[in-house]
Amino acid sequence: MTRQRALVYIHIAAVLFGLTGVFGELIQASAALITLGRALFAVVALLGFSRLQRRPLFTSLTPAQLFMLIVAGCLLAAHWVTFFISVKVGGIAVATLGFASFPAFITLFEGLLFREKVRLAEWLVLGLVTLGLVLVTPSFDFADQGTVGLAWGILSGLSFALLALSNRRSTVGLDAMQVACGQNIVVVLAMLPFAASQLPQLAGIDLFWIVLLGVFCTGLSHYLFVSSLTKLNARTAGLVIALEPVYAIAFAWVLFSQEPSLRMMAGAVLIVAAIVWSGLRKAAH
């Protein structure tokens, strides 16, 4: 692994993350079924990548680690379900930008739950994200599908923030691939009661898209992300991954003619700028 290869890996990972919404738009199945399939094929892919690297994915866990892994898996399931609902209701760009609110939620929770001092710069990040979301909101009327979609996207960002905070507390000493595989197994088990009855109605083309979503946008993207971190620092990785909303908006525009308005573009710039700035500050500290 060289630094140049690591940069290629992290950019491919960001593009694959950005493609997630595209698959959510293409697949004519419920959010619960998409989430179940995504997690199932992600587990298969991660098992394959672990064999290539000869990294054991199943090692002994303490009861506390197992409990936190289950909690994190449930949060991951909630994050994916709300994100795919957001895509289907409001479109790819709205869903991705709503999800991109997660740094603001992390800032709030770190201050409220962990009693960590929130600095002025972090409040500015929160303000930028909030202003960006105001600009992205199509109208302040819940009869508007775009507004409802954005609300689901923000819920997706909220659940992802809780997931990030739980991972921060519970994954110390655990391999990142092991955590990803374990959480995806929990997602499969959590979604089976809600989606199993829908499996017989799943169209062949939808199954194909779900396989691609699970293998490439989940399993492969996580493998590339983790591999790139052997040569890249957190700041560089964070700056590249922050481009995910940009890729998502571009894909939605080109593939589905979901052209963003100037107001949405302005909101996107503010949100992405807040994510980049937050990442730069955390890396510096």
Task: Looking at this protein, list some descriptive labels.
79% helix, 285 residues, mainly alpha, single chain
Which secondary structure elements does this structure contain, and how are they paired or packed?
Elements: H1 3-26, H2 31-53, H3 63-90, H4 92-99, H5 102-112, H6 120-136, H7 145-170, H8 176-195, H9 204-228, H10 234-241, H11 244-256, H12 262-284
Domain EamA: 6-136, 148-277
InterPro entries: EamA_dom, EmrE-like
Protein name: EamA family transporter
In short:
It comes from Bordetella genomosp. 4. By secondary structure, the chain is an all-alpha fold.
Contiguous runs where pLDDT drops below 50 for at least 5 residues:
none
In DSSP terms, counting alpha (H) and pi (I) runs of 4 or more, how many helices?
A: 12
Element order: H for helix, E for strand: HHHHHHHHHHHH
The main pleated sheet reads as: none
Q: Name the structural class.
A: mainly alpha
What is the helical fraction, as a range of percent? over 70%
Oligomer class: single chain
Spatial shape: globular
The total domain count is 1
Cα-atom Rg, whole angstroms? 18 Å
Distance separating the two termini:
26 Å
Q: Round the mean pLDDT to the nearest integer and report it.
A: 83
Q: Quick one: how many beta strands?
A: 0
Note the beta-strand portion.
under 5%
